[in-house]
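[User] I wish I could look at a protein chain and see how it folds. I have put the entry right below:
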Amino acid sequence: MASQVSTAPGMPDGAAGRPAVPPAPTAPPAAHEPLKGGQLVLGTLALSLATFMNVLDTSIANVSIPAIAGDMGVSPAQGTWVITSFAVANAISVPLTGWLTQRFGQVRLFTLSVLLFVLASWLCGLAPSIEMLIAFRVLQGLVAGPMIPLSQTLLLASYPRAMAGTAMAMWSMTVLVAPVAGPLLGGWITDNIAWPWIFYINIPVGLGAAALTWSIYRSRDPGPRRVPLDVVGLVLLVLFVGAMQIMIDKGKELDWFASGEIVMLAVVSVVSFMFFLAWELTERHPIVEIRLFARRNFVAGTLALSVAYGLFFGNVVLLPLWLQQHMGYTATWAGLATAPVGLLAIVLSPWVGKNVGRIDPRRLATVAFLGFALVLWMRSLFNTQADFTTILIPTLLQGAAMAFFFIPLQAIVFSGLAPHQTPSAAGLSNFVRITAGAVGTSLFTTLWEDRAALHHAQLVESIHLGNPTAVATLAQLRASGMSQEQALATVDRLINQQAFTLAVTDLFYLSAVMFFVLIVLIWFTRPVAQGSAGAGGGGAH
């Protein structure tokens, strides 16, 4: 099976969470001759379109969250469930890709995944309530799991072995461009048409990709075969991840552990997690190979990758929310402010992929974490007067950090593994990473509101008759024709803007510090043997 890959952010993921990809699988022993001429071009186009659609969908929704939340009558924090539900479902489906591939066949599974993704996209656009939209996003995340790894596998089988690097470079460019296009397209569609169309645009793209794929590749499918499925492990996995995510998403709304529902969800998550660990360690065909965590590079690399991705994705979701809710940005301008995050990544990723086998991946990952820390420190200096250029510069610089992020960390995670362990390691590391991204999103939106409430309370303390500035401001507002109530409401809006801006900069600063701390974790890993870091073709994003 191909290395498991899954999205993230994508970007504004206003950005969006960028998908990370483990080292690209080496070309498998060819059961069929490589494609040639027009069939090769059309096959590459079909696989690229499906991948682009998948990655685009992780980034296109971020700048639309305020509009979706407004239409559905929920808070923007609740609106972020549209992102986290997709991510959690996607994380759960990733470890299943290997079993599904064998059970249905590569081409059948890929084509079915694309068609179901189209159906789920259509249903998302039609959703009449936030509950239905979340349910359809869960479906979309579940069926999206196999698409990206299988697109890699089919693409590699389409090209001669000597052109495997070229094939993966083309594939990488598709996945890199999507996070740039997502927020731009999502913002424009939301402002000029309606947010359901961010999902409807998948329909023609997906149908075209599925039709082309089936017409070209159906004769190359090895076909299905019966393989055992770890049903108990799957149920326990769904229980512990699902309960944990719902607990984090609804914690603030239900006053955390003062709520019996939150306590119950916590108990279900912890108990099912303990049973999951015990079962997977004794199961003959585990859905997740827990024993891989006994390897120092795998556990440290996966932990660093996942925590960093959770920080990264949480910030990537938070930035467009702040811009639209408290800085007066439209969805289009929020997209413009966050989309360029992929530009430097497109330029630098090929160099990193080429040199990750020669330069210690720990050094490259350190560059990434220092870059992220610098970007987030710059954002921690934002205030309510920050102009478009001030906001754009860190976004551009973040692309450079991203180029040094995924490839070296994946090289560390996969170092020293035997070829037969790579699919399990890829599935497990990506499951942890994607789950961390969803948890990071929920925690960051919750912390943002908590910090904003604290800053609001502190700022309001200075609004009293003994403060000459406050008295003069209120008098000036009344002189402009406002009533006392209108003047106070105007002051409260200004305080609210300041409170949420101070809160978001608090989180930017905290994230910068945590990226510095993660550098220490990277250097706990063993050195990667020179020349082996890029085994399998170097990572792509």
Remarks:
- The longest strand covers residues 10-11.
- The chain has a mean pLDDT of 81.
- The longest helix spans residues 422-460.
- Residues 22 and 410 are 5 Å apart (CA to CA).
